[in-house]
Amino acid sequence: MWKEIALRRYQSRSQVVPQKSGQLLEKSRPYLYVAPALAFFTLFFFYPIAYMVYLSFYDWSLLDLSAMEWVGLENFHALFTDADFYQVLSNTFVFTVFTVSLGMGIAFFLALWLNHRAKIYGIVQAAIFTPHIISLVSIAMLWLWLMDPQYGLLNAILESFGLPPYSWLADTKSALASLILVSVWKVVGYNTLVFIAGLQSIPKYLYEAAALDRSPAWKTLWKITIPMLSPTLFFLLIINTISSFQVFDTINIMTQGGPVNSTNMLVFYIYEQGMDFYNGGIASAASVVLLLLVALLTLFHFLVLSKKVHYR
Amino acid sequence: MARVLLKQVVKAFQDQPVVKGLDLTIPNGSFTVLVGPSGCGKSTTLRMIAGLEEVTDGEIWIGDRKVNDVPPGKRDLAMVFQNYALYPTMNVFENIAFGLQNRGLPRQECKSLVHEIAEVVGLTSYLDRKPSELSGGQRQRVALARAMVKKPQVFLMDEPLSNLDAKLRNQMRVELTSLHKQLGSTFIYVTHDQVEAMTMGDQIVVMNEGRIQQVASPVELYQDPTNLFVAQFIGSPAMNILSWEEEESCLLGFRPEKGRIAATIQPSTEEKGISLRGKVRSREILGAEVLYYVDTRKGQIIVKANHDVELIAEDEDVRLSVAAKDLYFFDEKTGMRVMGQHVHSLPLAGGAV
Ligand SMILES: Nc1ncnc2c1ncn2[C@@H]1O[C@H](COP(=O)(O)OP(=O)(O)O)[C@@H](O)[C@H]1O
Ligand SMILES: [Mg+2]
């Protein structure tokens, strides 16, 4: 199709003898085409990023924007000498690793199980996909209630087995795990759906060929299904990593980063610094760190993992 | 060894019968071709033999084993798919070696077998390419190598040449038949192309609408079709079929290459047979031969003639004759061949177009 269009363009160009003003238009045409998108990205993407970097070199607060003071790398220095920040980073990593691996792992096996089971699929699909379309705020509220130490359903279940009630979110040992649980619960539906779409695009005859080649089930999974699914795996890995790096709503509603900083993560930390403690400079510096981390991770994914991805 | 036996094999999809009771013996070492129009159940039959499709009813035997409940991998057969079904994520070596590794062959032996077979099909320098980096013909060879390397008793092939261009197809036809001679294993080959069937098979199974029409050698199929379907399916262009006044409910047929055509209007020789008047509507010159489309009062008839005799112009009046020995008779209702009919005269001579 593109070839045709290009050809037609070429032909029409060679037919019409360009005039001076026409030539100018012709030359600026590509720029005109990308201008709206460029304007959009500049306004809402490049400019904010540049401004954020700029702000990270100042001591400022939302209370009084006129009192901005240049401090150089002071904000970064403060950040990296703050033990809390290290805990925030480590929380973020732990959270991401578990959310992504559990969210994808569970979804993968669910998808394998649901694939080709048309009857159950209809029902289960609705059940597992619903969390994805509900607002994260509602989900957080829901789980807050489920995990409530006095009235929560989870403890009611524990009790029915004769176990003592547990304060899921108030205990530093389990608060982070509880947040991971909520995130996994939310992300599994979407991941499963994407996995199933991927699985269904694997041609059936490959499995027939494998059956004729006497391939045992685990080997078919490992040698055919997973490699064929690698673009899907890669896509979900990047999407999930970035979104769990940016977790905010669940923390804000369920734990506020506590108890004792045990569930505080990067985006919430930034919000807290900027909005609660009025440390605009620290918040900006932490934002720059977040940006770099996400960029590095994505770069790593593309450089290292994309070699293993099979694109059809 | 590996004779394949089908006993009253039935396949239905959602209660819709597709294969309707096949009884077939495929002798050990034969090159058996299943041929028939698209949708007649050839692939389904082959896939049942392979074990990729469950048998609704009846029995399938390979060698002296009933295989109805034997999984595909344990039936000692290999299949070449129409689209080759190569593993896209594996390179050529891995594609060929996959089946061997699953049989627990030692690494070294596996490797030497793959190299050996790659040599045979001319793929040695492509072993580390992915299927997507190969041409259609090379993929075809990989598919063949993958089947051959397992040294199966039975080879199944479902239209393996239909994705190749005409030249390559002819070349592969020859290679496949010589491969069959070398290996001596049983080949079951599916095609919708009767020319392919006739040139490759030593036993041809003509199918239509889920039923076997005739099982015979190519020559027998051409000379002695058992019914109207086979008569018209085998041979190109198809056999001419005319109604015949002399006998009630009887159809008469002859092959285009058996018709003789002459520009003279006088009744021809004394030889027994039929003769008809007509007018050449159009003609196609195919190199050494010419196809004449002749309008007669019996409808349009195709005659294939050598054109070194004389080229007849379009719109010319002609006389068409067929010797009695080249005539076939069919029951109008059942379509079955009727033997022992005789042409008593030249009854169709009268009445020009
Ligand atoms: N999996 C299936 N489900 C339903 N119908 C099928 C299936 N496979 C084949 N058929 C039907 O069975 C008939 C025979 O198909 P097939 O064996 O592929 O024909 P052929 O190979 O002779 O062209 C066709 O009418 C086809 O639509
Ligand atoms: Mg078919």
Characterise this structure:
The complex is a heterodimer of chains A (312) and B (353). With 312 residues, chain A is mainly alpha-helical. Chain A is built from 13 helices and 2 strands; from the N terminus they run H-H-E-E-H-H-H-H-H-H-H-H-H-H-H. In chain A, a hairpin with a 2-residue loop joins strand 1 (58-61) and strand 2. In chain A, helix 10 (217-245) runs antiparallel to helix 13. Chain A is flat, with a radius of gyration of 26 Å. With 353 residues, chain B is α+β, with helices and mostly antiparallel strands. Helix content of chain B is 24%, strand content 32%. Chain B is built from 8 helices and 18 strands. In chain B, 41% of the residues are buried. The interface between A and B is medium-sized, with 20 and 25 residues. Magnesium ion is lined by residues 42-43, 158 of chain B. Chain B: It comes from Ammoniphilus resinae. Chain B: Residues 4-234 form the ABC transporter domain. Chain B: Keywords: ATP-binding, Nucleotide-binding, Transport.
Number of helices of chain B: 8
| Structural class estimated from helices and strands of chain A | mainly alpha
Q: List low-confidence stretches of chain B.
A: 345-353
- Give the number of DSSP strands of chain A: 2
Major sheet description of chain B: 6 strands, mixed
Question: What is shown here, in short?
Answer:
Chain A is mainly α. Chain A has 13 helices and 2 strands, in the order ααββααααααααααα. Helices cover about 75% and strands about 5% of the residues of chain A.
